[in-house]
Amino acid sequence: MALVFDLSGRTACVTGASSGLGRVAANALAAAGARVVGVARRQSELDDWRREAGGETASVAADLADRGRFDATIEAIIAPFGAPDILVSAAGINTRQPADEVTPANWDLTLDLNLRVPFFLAQAFAPVMKQRQWGRIVNFASLQSRRAFASGIAYGASKGGVEQMTRAMAEAWSKDGINANALAPGFFPTELTKAVFADAARVDALARQTCIGRNGRPEDLVGPLLFLCSDASAYVTGQVLFVDGGFTAK
C-alpha cells in the first residue's frame, strides 16, 4: 500500500519553497521521490532548501506577483525537468491590516499572490497534465477560508477565494485526470505566523481551541500533502482538507 504514496518519476513545482510550510512540502515531495522545482523570491534561502532536501531539485528565484515576469518564470520552472505533474501553491502573504486601514496596494498584493498566482500557474501547467491524463494541484487555503480573524480581511478574502477556486478547478479539469484540492493548515510556526507565536498566551489559547490540544508541527503536514499529491487521492478532488488539530471542529 505504501506504493500509492510513491512519487518516483513525477515532477513537482512548489511555490514558497524557501521557508515555512512551502519548504516542508518541498522536502516531503523530494523525500517521496519526486523531482522538485522550488520557487521563491530569495535565492540564498532556496540554496539552503536544496541542500536540506537532497534528491533531484532545482530552484527558481522569482517574484510571482510580478506580472511582467510571469511568463519568464513559467519557462524557468519548466526548464530543469519539464512541465510539472504536481503543483503545490504554498506562497502567500498576510499584511495583517485592520479593515479600516487596508490600502488598495496591499489588497491588490494579497489577492495577487494568494489567489491570482495559483490560478494562472495551474492554467499554465494544465495542458501538459491533460496530455498525460494525470495531475495534482494542491492549493493552500487557511482557517480564514472559513473563519474571520482580526486584521485579516484581505487575507481572509483571498483564502475564501482559494477554497472556491479549488472547487472550480476540480470542475474544470478533473475529467482530464487533474485532481485539484486544498490544504487548510491550522496554526503552525512559520514566517507568516511569527507575530502570533511570539505571544505565549495567545499560542496557548490557540492550542486549547483545537481538539487535540496543541498547535501544528511541520511533520503534521507531510501525510496529508503526500495523500493529495499521489495516487492515494485518485478519487478525491475539489476538497479542502483542514490540517488543524480540530480547530474548526469546535
Task: Explain briefly what this protein structure is.
This protein is an alpha/beta fold and 250 residues long.
Number of helices: 8
What's the CATH superfamily, by name?
NAD(P)-binding Rossmann-like Domain
Quaternary structure: single chain
List the secondary-structure elements in sequence, H or E. Answer: EHEHEHEHEHEHHHE
Name the strands of the widest sheet in spatial order.
Answer: 3-2-1-4-5-6-7
Average pLDDT number: 96
The percent range for helix content is 40-55%
Describe the structure in your own words.
The protein has 250 residues and is an alpha/beta fold. The protein has a single domain, classed as NAD(P)-binding Rossmann-like Domain (Rossmann fold, 3-Layer(aba) Sandwich). It has eight helices and seven strands. It has helices spanning 20-31, 43-53, 70-78, 104-132, 153-173, 194-197, 200-209, 222-229, and strands at 11-15, 35-40, 57-61, 86-89, 135-140, 178-185, 240-243. Strands 3-2-1-4-5-6-7 form a seven-stranded parallel sheet, sandwiched between helices. Helix 5 links the parallel strand 5 (135-140) and strand 6 (178-185). Helix 1 (20-31) packs across helix 8 and helix 4 packs parallel to helix 5 (153-173). One of its GO terms (biological process) is fatty acid elongation. This is Gluconate 5-dehydrogenase. Belongs to the short-chain dehydrogenases/reductases (SDR) family. Pfam families: adh_short_C2.
Q: What are the key terms here?
A:
7-stranded parallel beta sheet, oxidoreductase activity, acting on the CH-OH group of donors, NAD or NADP as acceptor, alpha/beta, single chain, SDR_fam, 42% helix, globular, 250 residues, NAD(P)-bd_dom_sf, 8 helices, Rossmann fold, Gluconate 5-dehydrogenase
